[in-house]
Amino acid sequence: MSGEAHPAMFTIQTTVECYLLPGDGDAARAKFLEHLKDPHEMWIIAYSFTLAPMIDEIIANAAGGDPIHIYLDYSQSKGKFEMPQVQRLIDAGVEVTIGTSPAGTSYITHTKGFVCDDTPLPFCWEGSVNFSASGWMQVNTAMIFNNQTWRDQFVQQFDALRDYAWTNERSYQLLKTPPAGVTIGPSTSAGATVAGTATKSATKKAPAKKTPAKKASATKARAKKTSAKKTPAKKASATKTSAKKASAKKKGPAKH
Question: 32-63, pLDDT tens digit by residue?
Fold first, then answer.
């Protein structure tokens, strides 16, 4: 797909710890919050992002100096429940990028995952559960594992999404300036293409304005055309004159 900088498919070999919700909801939620405390650089991509204890953990972790990078779905981030939580992160100095999909702004960001540079291998979380208060009580899945390949591909996609959003969806951003490492490239969104077309169309040359001399000439020409056209009254008079001439020819010369 356009805008994606990672392979279409890749494989990993690892041991996966699996959770089926809601039965495993409490255990999965506890594990999720526990790993948000990991003291290493972290990347998060999420759809819904409203779980208050999660926000608390991220702010506390970031305050300790650990870099945390977050990419959130635009449609959810502007909601009444999520917007205050996102603003808390921004106010605390946490890096947050808001965007859609490189396939088009009508498509959402639906991933619910994060990776952290734990040692000896990165920690990875992936599943269908939203990072919200109710997600753990819904029918969802969650998986945790440690794998370098998954971490690398996840971060590569994160970077591509972040670059895309800052290039094409700057108006969605709450941060005043792009985060370090962002590459602003040529706009590739459908909206930018339409805007470019509109701008080009608007800059087409307007019809040349007539100078006073040209206006006078045009007025004179119109006047001649108008004069050349006979009115009904003039046409009737001309017809009458022609009739008189024809009658005179028939009578011949007048006798004296």
Answer: 999 999 999 999 999 999 999 999 999 999 99
Q: Angle at Cα 8 formed by Cα 5 and Cα 9, nearest 5°?
A: 125
Q: Which amino acid is at 150?
A: W
Beta carbons within 10 angstroms of residue 166's beta carbon: 22
- By CB atoms closer than 10 A (0-12, 13-18, 19+), residue 223 is exposed
Q: Is the pLDDT of residue 231 over 80?
A: no
The answer to whether residues 113 and 124 touch, using CB atoms and an 8 Å cutoff, is yes
Q: Which long-range contacts (CB under 8 A, 24 or more apart) does 187-195 make?
A: 188/2, 188/3, 188/102, 188/164, 189/104, 189/105, 190/104, 190/105, 191/105, 192/168
Architecture field, domain 17-177 = 2-Layer Sandwich (3.30)
Amino acid at 84: P
CB 71 within 8 A of CB 179: no
Q: What residues have CB less than 8 Å from 115, skipping those under 6 apart? A: 42, 43, 122, 123, 124, 125, 150, 151, 154, 155
Where do we find the tokens 């926000």? 55
Give, in degrees to the nearest 5, the angle at Cα 91 between 86 and 96: 45
